[in-house]
Amino acid sequence: MRDPVVTLRILAVRSGFAAGRLLPIRRRVVLATSHADRIGGNLAFIRDEIARRTPSEPVVVLAFRHRPGVRGRVAALWHAMRSGFHLATARAFIVDDYFFALYVIHPRPGTVRVQVWHAAGAFKKFGYSVLDRSFGADDALVEQVPIHANYDLCLVSAAAIAPHYAEAFRLPLDRFTSSVGIPRTDLFSDAARRARVEADIRRRYRIPGGRRVVLYAPTFRGDSVLAARDDALLDLHRLAAVIGDDHVVLMRLHPFVRGRATVSADLAGFAIDVSGHPDINELMLVSDVLVSDYSSAIFEFALLGRPIAFLAPDHVAYVGERGFYLDFPADLPGPVFETTASLADHLRAGEFDTARVEAFARASFDLADGRASERFVDLVVRPALEGRQPEVPRVGG
Questions:
Q1: Which residues contact 69 (CB under 8 A, 6 or more apart)?
Q2: What's the whole-number mean pLDDT along residues 163-177?
Q3: Are residues 317 and 374 in the same domain?
Q4: Which CATH number fits the domain that encloses residue 217?
Q5: Predicted pLDDT at 65
Q6: Which of 322, 318, 288 is nearest to 304 (CA)?
Q7: Is the pTM above the cut of 0.90?
Q8: Both 292 and 217 in a single domain?
């Protein structure tokens, strides 16, 4: 049975697209996301590189986060119509996640659509890989909306993981490339920018000097993005009792979680809520250790060669909710703990296997040299603006 809300969104997209088709295609780049009120990560790095190289190049930003309720649905319809219009009129349309409007149109010749995704590596399953899981699209939606359709090119961090993305998007391997790199990782190779960012973060969040900084960045729980939640699996009081004298913990909840981390007054100075910070890679720069569960943040943190540990007491249940592309826990770049107490003992001991982390980074990235944004503009954006397909080697080519 067709969902009437989905039908309305399809009609909104197609009406905007039909209006756009009445106009000539414009030399314009659209950077679009449907899970945040502003662009970040790869899209922000691409925007900044375009502005640096060709500041007169027209760039449009479509940033929208779905909200529940009647107002949220009305706003979604307007966003759908606007997205359809730009899909018809822009030479280059670049997205970083699931983007509904892109899947319900028949692309106009002379336009190029690129998926840069919001994560490196391949950890949690997504797209068509989770049709049989509690998380993800169901068969009814897929019958109505061919999700992840119409990409001309998709970035991946390594050719070895492209088959996982091909399965998730149901696309041939020749739609994928690992020869560009991941734009937002350019931050790690820019010494001057790193120094500015690190100083700003330490000042903004009043991070005390002389302490080991632990970045706690779990993924979200829940059967949908709108129902994303944090299950508060880390016992901050237990952790503080063991490492509170010389550690500080940055609490960074997943952006899909609506709300902030709960830090009680007696933990002030030990635990700092940084959930509102837009770029997790910036937080990585000041962090000595990453603690996560199933977050793809582990891939980029591995590029720093610093220790990673996992707190995952619900990993058996999570397999049913999402599942993994890698072998959990054998393929992980650090040990897995089921209790805060055991994690705390590990952090207290300070005996970390960074060689394991470095090997994980080498396997996860074919290219991370600080020039991905530059290559993306030269090999993807410029040809697209001229009505040509991106000029990059493909994984399946």
A1: none
A2: 97
A3: no
A4: 3.40.50.12580
A5: 87
A6: 288
A7: yes
A8: yes
